[in-house]
């Protein structure tokens, strides 16, 4: 850093300015980054490098289910760090098995089994491979390789999952995209039926489109997809990466709809911020991926599994889930009151549990920037929707504080 020039009145560059300047030199410029440097977190609060405090109502990015540096999860991680970090998946290790036992038991899938990976995209990649190989190798349907997915959805950034993500803005420039994906409209059962044919393998759907704008599937739609899959020999695959482990008040959001998928994916909240993903499937479809057909070097990393077990035991405790529902309703009532005070400005209020969106008429990015300036972090889902996905341990007071900042920032 150059010594400050006493002859000018320009303010000296802050530490934050320097960090951001260096970031612009050395990091791939693939993210639209907010101009703050986050340095420390505790529960629902974050502090930046200048010591300014923010109320974090997006919890990382719907990842830190129990808030930042939760003491119980931190203790479990520290214990595992002192015991064993990582072994190859050609050996057994207990944290993986204990985590799989929790996920599979809660899932309701017959004879459920879990596969561990490191991210949401990888978990969805496993779903796609599972579906194709089940049709090809187990059912002998060599022609059935297509997946039907939904416009406005989001499934990840690998080539297959970005192709499953039916939004041109994520796909542009990466052609040729893998073959075998067709897109339907969320809620349009007749449209889905028109796409089903002799080459269809599976349907992949989010119970609530998260990145696409916090848009829940219409009531009964998942059930109708289940029936369509059963009638046509297709697998129903559910992407629970954003909705999973307790965020909506049930371990998995499909459980609100009375459906049981053949397989589903998890990631975001699973490790409370440590990278871990999972694919859970029924015993029947697990036959598609026998020995040596799929794998991951780091999947099921023991430190990440220890974090996930500690997170699960709190996040999916019945008392926590009741509170998640109640706090979600509190958030809804606060948001509806704001909508009533700002007709035309606030267009819609949507969500389930603590996955929540407030759609504006316009200028959502500007509102978000003002929220940040006023000490509140949320994020943008779709073009016009401000997304809230706080820690399940957020308090009602913090929700009220956050929504007051949001209203003042409108
Ligand atoms: C975030 C997200 C993904 C991608 O997860 P990554 O960990 O970024 O690969 C996939 N599906 C849904 C629904 C998501 O919200």
Distance between the termini: 38 Å
Subunit arrangement of the protein: single chain
> How would a textbook summarize the main sheet?
7 strands, mixed
CATH superfamily name of the largest domain? Type I PLP-dependent aspartate aminotransferase-like (Major domain)
Task: Record the strand order, biggest sheet.
Answer: 4-12-11-10-7-5-6
The CATH class designation of the largest domain is: Alpha Beta
Q: What is the CATH topology assignment of the largest domain?
A: Aspartate Aminotransferase, domain 2
Percent of residues in helical segments? 25-40%
The whole-angstrom Rg is 22 Å
Q: What is the count of helical runs?
A: 14
Tell me what the structure shows:
By secondary structure, this protein is α/β, with parallel strands linked by helices. The protein has 2 domains: 15-69 and 318-409, Aspartate Aminotransferase, domain 1 (Alpha-Beta Complex), CATH 3.90.1150; 84-315, Aspartate Aminotransferase, domain 2. The protein has 14 helices and 17 strands. The chain has helices at 15-26, 59-62, 71-81, 94-107, 120-138, 159-164, 168-171, 189-195, 221-232, 283-286, 302-315, 318-341, 364-373, 396-408; strands at residues 38-42, 45-48, 53-56, 113-117, 146-150, 181-184, 200-205, 208-209, 215-216, 235-239, 263-266, 277-281, 346-352, 355-360, 376-377, 379-381, 385-388. β2 and β3 form a beta hairpin. α4 (94-107) runs parallel beside α11 (302-315). The longest helix has 24 residues, at 318-341. The protein is globular and about 75 Å long. The mean pLDDT is 96. Bound molecules: pyridoxal-5'-phosphate. Pyridoxal-5'-phosphate (PLP) is lined by residues 119-121, 124, 154-156, 206, 210-211, 239, 241-242, 267-268.
């Amino acid at each position: 850093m150059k010594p400050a020039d006493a002859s000018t009145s320009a303010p000296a560059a802050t530490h934050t300015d320097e960090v951001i300047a260096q970031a612009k030199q050395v990091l791939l410029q693939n993210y639209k980054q907010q101009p703050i440097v986050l340095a420390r977190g505790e529960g629902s609060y974050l502090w930046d490098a200048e010591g300014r405090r923010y109320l974090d109502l997006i919890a990382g990015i719907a990842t830190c289910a129990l808030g930042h540096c939760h003491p119980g999860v931190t203790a479990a991680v520290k214990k595992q760090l002192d015991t064993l970090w990582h072994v190859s998946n050609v050996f057994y290790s207990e944290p993986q098995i204990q985590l799989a036992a929790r996920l599979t038991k809660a899932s309701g899938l017959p004879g459920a089994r879990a596969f561990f990976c490191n991210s949401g995209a990888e978990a969805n990649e496993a779903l796609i491979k599972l579906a194709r190989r089940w049709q090809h190798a187990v059912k002998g349907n060599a022609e059935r390789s297509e997946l039907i997915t939904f416009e406005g959805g989001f499934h990840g950034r690998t080539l297959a999952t970005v192709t499953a993500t039916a939004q041109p803005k994520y796909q542009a420039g990466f052609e040729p995209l893998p073959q075998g994906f067709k897109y339907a409209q969320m809620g349009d059962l007749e449209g889905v039926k028109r796409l089903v044919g002799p080459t269809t393998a599976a349907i992949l759907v989010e119970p609530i489109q998260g990145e696409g704008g916090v848009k829940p599937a219409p009531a009964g739609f998942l059930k109708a997809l289940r029936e369509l899959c059963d009638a046509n020999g297709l697998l129903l695959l559910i992407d629970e990466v954003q909705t999973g482990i307790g965020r909506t008040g049930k371990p998995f959001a499909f459980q609100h709809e009375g459906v049981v998928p053949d397989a589903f994916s998890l990631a975001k909240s699973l490790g409370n911020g440590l990278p871990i993903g999972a694919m859970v499937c029924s015993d029947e479809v697990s036959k598609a991926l026998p020995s040596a057909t799929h794998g991951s070097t780091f999947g099921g990393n023991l430190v990440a599994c220890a974090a996930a077990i500690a997170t699960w035991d709190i996040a999916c405790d019945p008392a926590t889930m009741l509170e998640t529902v109640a706090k979600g309703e509190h958030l809804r009532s606060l948001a509806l009151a704001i909508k009533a005070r700002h007709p035309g400005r606030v267009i819609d209020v949507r969500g389930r549990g603590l996955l929540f969106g407030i759609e504006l008429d316009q200028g959502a990015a500007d509102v978000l920037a003002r929220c940040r300036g006023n000490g509140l972090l949320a994020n943008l889902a779709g073009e016009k929707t401000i997304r809230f996905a706080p820690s399940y341990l957020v308090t009602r007071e913090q929700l009220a504080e956050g929504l007051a900042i949001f209203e003042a920032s409108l």
